[in-house]
Design a protein that fits this description.
about 775 residues; mainly beta; 22-stranded antiparallel beta barrel; 4-stranded antiparallel beta sheet; about 55% strand; globular
């Protein structure tokens, strides 16, 4: 290898950008990190590649729709890569000769292409992939892709049925959800021994736009995903742990990124009806579509309307409307412009969380209610613009700009008559919000010496303007008094720098730094005199990932990093809180392998240390910060193809969660699940028939710190069947096939019934759905 003496123009420009980034975050970088950053930057700017060899580059296109295919695993001469969002891929420093290029992706036929690479020249290709049935034999686990869940995600989106909006999050192995407010409220989420409330420690996004709401009226990180219809989930990407630098706030247990299709493959009209007076109609149509050698354009629109009385004795009267439209233009495979607009509105009544003693006394049945005025309404309008450009084989640019207008109004009664024996303890939580955001990245792909090197500088901001955030005391949805009332603004400016290098043909290293700066502002409208509070904080999050590909069927990985979640603006500015941006320190190690034909396995051992937890406070209907915790666990995932059309899958998750600094026996983490598992059998397109029988189970878990109160576990079976004949498809779904009695959301809450003289603390729960049958017909054209 020649000396690092000759200055490469691309490396100089990129190195200059890195120096600017380092100077921006200089004040937050510890003294021992600065020499390392400067050394890496200097080497990057000074080193040049070896004398140019040949190369292979090109685009992967869907044969039928002529659209880019991202995430394709591409292998040549023991080297690997994946196609980006534009379908682009590149191999550098390929010696002159003849090669076989292998391209594989779940749901497409594997392509083998002979390529002759001349000396000092690159071969340009356009590869067309044909759609096919799912075949796990084609899955390659060793592709040079540090994201270790790529193989699982691409398989699951093809096999795991998504029956409704709530099912969307279940795509993540080990993730459990619970609904406890009538179907219109965001689900409670459980992952890796964390009760994530409604999103406190998991970052959720749709088309790059964050779903989580900071400093929300009901709970920090509140993530209402109901604006995303299940038919529009084109791809899902997820990672557990805080190891991806593109995700900052809330990305501690991991992130989930959903993508809608840029180009609609099929138009459809869908009609569904089921028990409990349930109806739904949905449709998606192409408004404009044009393809030629220069541009591929499409504009499509979709909509859905749902309503149900629900299975409670008091009708839920739930309805939801969804509208979505998207325009995409791909110009000569180098430029992609996408603009989407969506609107979501929902209204519902709820039966709330009930204590077991009310049932035992005969006051209500299992599906009865105590406060009949619980419920709410919410809505969200989104505008999302993406522009991506591939300058050449080395440089690419991505810019995303988004805006959301959001409203939320919820009536709840957690403690019944504890504080007010006459009117009850009903509260109202509401807010109006405007969310503005931008995220961009500049990507460089080249060589350091003779090693493939990919570097990314990301940057952006998020600004939440909440004009009216309120906690009220109410009765029958009538205002009695204001408990809290104000306005807040929260700004987050962030930047990251991540680098991936092939240390060898088998070993890949990814290292990253992310910096987030926050500005918190709150105006208390109930307080006389000084009522304005503000504070600024920053946090640096280093991350490192190492992957070793032994061969096409075995890959080892280890990841370590720091993540964080912000605390509620009102809490940190009006009450003494030690941690404004509490961190999570995490470590994952494991392997993904194919020990046999058609069998895909992934196993991970992990540990996480949290500086601060959030604890549910039933008598206030809010969450408050708590102490430090440690968690350890094992995750095991298996996907197996039994024959051409039959598949089996299972995820098993074991976790131990304990509070730090508490005595043994009093150090349990409330609602931390020690055991969860999901899985099932799926038949795919067997003579037009598809079906899935799926189970989900969660073990008993402590509901308080000494485990004297226990939240009951459950085992459920669901079934989904469909039959397609030409343009017509008939569907049938059955939830809770065994008609088990089970408790969905469960909390240890201190409450008082109206006929009681003292308060009693016990499990309050929302009963899970009984057996529920729904049928439908889909016309595709």
């Amino acid at each position: 290898m020649q000396d690092c003496r000759e200055l490469n123009k691309d490396q100089f420009v990129y190195g200059l950008l890195i120096q600017i980034l380092v100077s921006i975050v200089d004040s937050s970088i510890s003294s021992y990190m600065k020499p390392i950053l400067l050394f890496v930057t200097t080497i990057f700017m000074a080193c040049t590649a070896l004398a140019q060899s040949g190369g292979i580059k090109g685009y992967v296109i869907d044969t039928d729709n002529k659209i880019p295919v991202s995430g394709v695993n591409i292998q040549v001469d023991k080297k690997g890569t994946i196609s980006n969002h534009l379908g682009y891929f590149a191999f550098r420093e390929v010696a002159a000769g003849e090669y076989e290029l292998e391209l594989s992706y779940v749901g497409y036929t594997t392509e083998l292409i002979k390529v002759v690479v001349p000396s000092n020249k690159s071969v340009d290709l356009t590869v067309n992939l044909k759609r096919s049935s799912v075949n796990l034999n084609n899955v390659i686990v060793s592709g040079k892709n540090i994201v270790t869940n790529q193989a699982l995600a691409s398989v699951d989106i093809q096999l795991r049925p998504v029956n409704n909006s709530q099912d969307i999050l279940k795509m993540v192995p080990g993730l459990f959800i619970a609904q406890h407010a009538g179907g219109g409220k965001a689900e409670q989420i459980f992952l890796r021994g964390y009760d994530l409330d409604h999103g406190t420690d998991i970052a959720i996004s749709v088309d790059g736009m964050p779903v989580n709401m900071v400093s929300h009226a009901h709970g920090q990180g509140y993530a209402d995903l109901h604006f995303l219809e299940p038919e529009l989930v084109d791809k899902v990407s997820f990672e557990k742990g805080p190891y991806n630098s593109a995700y900052g706030n809330f990305a501690t247990t991991g992130f989930v990124a959903f993508s809608t299709p840029d180009f609609l493959k099929e138009q459809y009209v869908k009609l569904e009806a089921g028990m409990f007076n349930t109806q739904r109609i949905g449709s998606a149509i192409k408004l404009f579509s044009k393809q030629n050698d220069r541009v591929n354009q499409q504009w499509y629109a979709s909509g859905a309307y749902s309503k149900t009385h629900g299975y409670f004795e008091k009708p839920q009267d739930f309805f939801r409307s969804n509208l979505f439209t998207k325009y995409t233009a791909a110009f000569t495979n180098k430029t992609l412009l996408s603009v989407s607009v969506s609107n979501f509105s929902s209204r519902w009544d709820a039966s709330g969380q009930i204590p077991q003693r009310a049932i035992d006394k005969g006051l209500i049945t299992r599906f009865g209610t105590i406060d009949s005025s619980e419920g709410g309404n919410t809505g969200r309008t989104n505008v999302n613009v993406l522009f991506q450009y591939q300058f050449n084989s080395k440089w690419s640019l991505s810019n995303r700009l988004y805006y959301s207008n959001y409203n939320f109004n919820l009536f709840s009664n957690f403690t019944l008559f504890l504080n007010d024996s006459v009117n009850g303890d009903e509260i109202q939580q509401k807010e109006k919000r405007s969310l503005y955001g931008y995220q961009g990245s500049l990507n460089y792909s080249g060589l350091i010496g003779n090693k493939n090197y990919v570097s990314e500088i990301g940057y952006g901001f998020r600004y939440d303007d909440v004009s009216d955030i309120t906690l009220n005391k109410t009765a029958n949805r009538v205002l009695l008094s204001h408990l809290k009332k104000g306005s807040l603004q929260e700004a987050n400016v962030f930047a990251w720098w991540q680098n991936t290098i092939d240390i060898s043909n088998k070993l890949e290293l990814n290292a990253a730094l992310r910096y987030d700066w926050f500005n918190f502002r709150y105006r208390d409208q109930l307080m006389a005199g000084l009522s304005f509070y503000s504070q600024q904080r920053g946090v640096l999050s280093p991350k490192i990932n190492l992957a070793f590909s032994a061969d096409k069927s075995l890959k080892f990985f280890i990841s370590s990093g720091i993540g964080f979640h912000s605390n509620d603006t009102r809490v940190i500015l009006t009450a003494p809180v030690n941690k404004v941006l509490p961190k999570v320190y995490a470590l994952d190690a494991g392997a993904i392998l194919k020990p046999a034909k058609g069998l895909l396995l992934k196993t991970t051992v992990w540990s996480m240390y949290s500086e601060q937890e959030f604890v549910y406070v039933g008598d206030e209907g809010v969450v408050e910060p708590s102490g430090e915790t440690r968690r350890y666990g094992i995750d095991l995932s298996a996907r197996y193809q039994l024959n051409k059309w039959l598949f089996a899958d299972a995820d098993i998750n074991l976790t131990k969660a304990r509070a730090v600094g508490e005595t043994k026996g009093n150090n349990y983490v409330p609602l931390a699940a020690g055991f969860t598992s999901i899985g099932g059998l799926t038949a795919k397109n067997a003579g037009g028939f598809s079906g899935s029988l799926r189970y989900r189970t969660i073990g008993n878990r402590p509901a308080n710190e000494d485990k004297s109160v226990v939240a009951d576990g459950y085992f459920l079976l669901d079934a989904l069947f469909s039959y397609r004949r030409k343009a017509f498809e008939f569907t049938l779904s059955i939830q809770n096939l065994l008609n088990n009695d089970w408790n969905e959301a469960q909390f240890d809450t201190n409450s008082r019934l109206q006929d009681e003289t003292i308060a009693i603390s016990e499990i309050h729960f929302t009963p899970g759905t009984p057996a529920f049958v729904k049928g439908g017909i889909v016309v595709r054209f």
